[in-house]
Write a structure and sequence with these properties.
The chain has about 625 residues and is an alpha+beta fold. It contains 24 helices and 17 strands. It binds iron/sulfur cluster (SF4).
């Protein structure tokens, strides 16, 4: 075992709470100094402990899986956009490593009770929730909220424990083990990888934290100066000001113009009526904004539908990915329907990206005659018609009728249908693709292909392809030659997520050295202010995540983009990129593995692992 038991530390390496739902026992433990130096916190601690504590081959929905909820060393401090948190576990969607990031206040609240993270293990014999305070941990009966949606659940917990309480919970989808169920905190979600299903498999409905606001820092004076400098840098930044005004609700303006807005289950790169989904059109439905702890951007734009069949729909969102999931996937420009589907996903606790792609997949199966109304509970699934989409979201969340099959994800559903349906299953490693068409944004696509969690835009976002970012060098978005840029993006993201800082904030003129200085002041470790050290931490995290998957039997075969993108030319309806395909995947992977120090099969070589201090995980 990795942990030490210490009551006091010279350094702030982080404490965590281990909660066993089978035995009801809890233990407070501390992170060893060497682990704090090598992994820092957040995502670093997540993979370090997950690798150490999960036996290979376990069932992700079995009692042996563990659920880690992690904040970072900066959470709960006055610094801006540093209080996000994440979940790490073994994914029921991919069978590999999972990390899913969430916002709202929960990460700060975890720090307020002086924990960097929770390790939740075992399985309760009946529905329970965990209530945490500075004084202790109680495992409570959740009978009154089992079956309730996430709004009802959080309202009930607020009534039980008061205004100083923040929660993370699952909805019916998590209880019913939908493979892409989310964990919801306020109206933010740890959406990807099926973390909500893992929580549901443990009969755990929610974690509630009641706390007063205080955080332990090793050097509070130095930290305070750095936080003030950070606030000044951010508040004057143009990208920050744009994000504050619009959130991500204008990204579809750009991606439709670039021909990379995946449409009709990744057949086209542009919506038929793209002008009807512009950010300015969504702006007319906006009724408020919401955000995460200590972030003035408040980028969650709230939309309310006032007329038509979806009147009354009200959602903190949809943000870009969800706008796309509920328009692009089925070639619909009905933005009211997108708000209704988004709200339903948050209520039921479902990842919007996987839900949208699964629904687009069902529409295409219907179009191709591979399923019929006998399979769809009578629904006619026609591209352009959003009405069945909202029904399908509900069916997925409750595993009703065809929803029960779609709840398994596109990979498993295609395996059960056969007949060439895998051509329409748009996933990497079993996780559905997000809202950027790889044939028109190749570095973004190869980030999906090589990400250990499956197709995730956030694993190493290729801002070079989408926004023309010039660092580390500009890309030609149709070229497949930027393995070094993909690695740069992935490693940099891993460093930021040790924080756990918001990835948007990384584009607000807040340089890595400033982040490192804040980490150093928080942990009391000068080494964390060294950029070379930080770069190595990012590399180390990515390599250990890869080693986790290798131990589960994954290799090069799992690093492929979906068959459609390798065999069908992109159609862009007049936007740039007509006819593009992914044509050089093998050459790309060869280069990527070589630069990473991995074998031709995509396995980290012993020399590389030793160099990173990961000899314990080399094959
Ligand atoms: S920019 Fe948005 S997602 Fe990021 S911390 Fe701020 S409110 Fe949260």
């Amino acid at each position: 075992m990795l942990f030490l038991k210490e009551e006091s530390m010279a350094l702030n390496t982080g404490r965590f709470l281990r909660i066993n739902l089978t035995t009801g026992k809890t233990a407070v433990e501390s992170v060893p100094e060497s682990v704090a130096e090598d992994f820092i916190g957040g995502r670093g601690y997540g993979i370090r402990y997950l690798y150490d504590e999960l036996a290979p081959g376990i069932d992700p929905l079995g009692e042996q899986n563990k659920l880690l909820m992690l904040s970072g060393p900066l959470a709960g401090t006055p610094a801006l956009a540093v209080s996000r948190w994440m979940v790490c576990t073994k994914s029921p969607l991919t069978g590999g490593y999972a990390r899913s990031v969430c916002g709202a206040d929960f990460g700060a609240w975890l720090r307020f009770i002086d924990y960097d993270f929770l390790i939740i293990e075992g399985k309760a014999d009946k529905p329970v929730y965990i209530h945490l305070t500075e004084d202790g941990c109680e495992i409570m009966d959740a009978g009154a909220i089992w079956g309730k949606d996430t709004k009802e659940t959080q309202a009930w917990l607020g009534e039980q424990h008061g205004k100083k309480t923040r929660t993370a919970c699952i909805g019916p989808a998590g209880e019913k083990l939908v493979r892409y169920a989310a964990i919801v905190s306020d109206r933010r979600t740890a959406g990807r990888c099926g973390t909500g299903a893992v929580m549901g498999s443990k009969n755990l409905k929610a974690v509630a934290i009641t706390a007063s606001r205080k955080v332990h820092l090793s050097d509070p004076e130095a930290y305070d100066i750095l936080a003030k400098e950070q606030a000044k840098l951010i508040r004057d930044n143009d990208a920050y000001l744009h994000h504050k005004e619009w959130g991500t609700t204008t990204t579809q303006d750009i991606t439709n113009d670039l021909g990379i807005y995946p449409t009709s289950n990744f057949r086209y790169g542009k919506l038929v009526d793209s002008e009807k989904v512009l950010g300015a059109v969504y702006r007319k439905m906006r009724t408020g904004d919401m955000g995460c702890y200590s972030c003035p951007a408040r980028c969650g734009k709230v939309h309310t539908v006032t007329a038509g069949p979806y009147a009354g729909a009200h959602s903190e969102g949809p943000e870009y990915e969800s706008i796309w999931a509920f328009t692009g996937s089925i070639d619909s420009s009905d933005i009211e329907a997108s708000v209704a589907a988004d709200e339903l996903c948050d209520d039921l606790g479902i990842d919007t990206i996987s839900a949208g792609v699964c629904i687009g997949f069902a529409y295409e199966l219907f179009e191709k005659g591979l399923i019929s109304t006998a399979d769809t509970d009578g629904l006619e699934l026609r591209f352009g018609d959003p009405a069945p989409m909202v029904d399908l979201v509900r069916k997925i969340g409750l595993r009703e009728g065809i929803g029960d099959r779609l709840a398994e994800g596109t990979m498993r559903m295609a395996e059960s249908i056969g007949q060439g349906s895998d051509l329409y299953a748009i996933h990497v490693k079993g996780m559905e693709l997000p809202a950027y068409e790889p044939r028109g944004a190749k570095s973004q696509g190869y980030n999906y292909a090589t990400a250990s969690i499956g197709a995730s835009h956030c694993y190493g976002y290729a801002a070079q392809d989408i926004f023309g970012a010039p660092v580390p060098r500009p890309t030609d978005r149709f070229s497949e030659e930027y393995a070094d840029v993909v690695i740069f993006n992935q490693n940099g993201t891993a460093v930021k997520e040790t924080g756990v800082i918001c990835l948007f904030a990384g584009g607000w003129g807040w340089v890595e050295s400033h982040y490192g200085a804040m980490l150093a002041a928080s942990r009391g470790m000068e080494k964390l202010a060294d950029n070379d050290h930080l770069d190595k931490v990012g590399d180390r995290i990515i390599n250990l995540e890869r080693a986790f998957n290798v131990r589960e039997g994954m290799d090069r075969r799992n690093d492929s983009l979906p068959k459609r993108l390798l065999t069908e030319p992109l159609q862009t309806r007049g936007a740039p990129g007509e006819g593009q395909m992914v044509s050089h995947q093998d050459e790309f992977l060869d280069k990527y593995y070589e630069l990473r120090g991995w074998s031709r099969e995509g396995v980290p070589l012993q020399e590389k692992m030793e160099e990173l201090g990961l000899g314990f995980a080399s094959k």
